[in-house]
Amino acid sequence: MKILGISILMMGILIGFSLGIDLLLGFEIRTSLKSAFNPFRVMEVPEFVIIFFLVFSLVFESVRSFYQKRNVKTNNSEKHP
What we know:
By secondary structure, the protein is mostly helical. It folds into 2 domains: about 1-40; about 45-80. The protein is built from 4 helices and no strands. The protein starts with a helix and ends with a helix. Pfam families: YczF (PF26310). Keywords: Membrane, Transmembrane, Transmembrane helix. InterPro entries: YczF.
């Protein structure tokens, strides 16, 4: 879960940084948002599948690891009263 949180935080900071630079250059908010999300508009279907797979695997692995660690803690606490 830490990896997922850090990834989302970094993405938010980088998008904010990009928007801030665009605003300082004199662009409107709408133009800044379009330029921030432009890479996703020009992607083709195979590229969308690959990025979806990478994001899905990141989320799935984080959630799986979280539940696995939680089950280990629960099992250890049941063994030692």
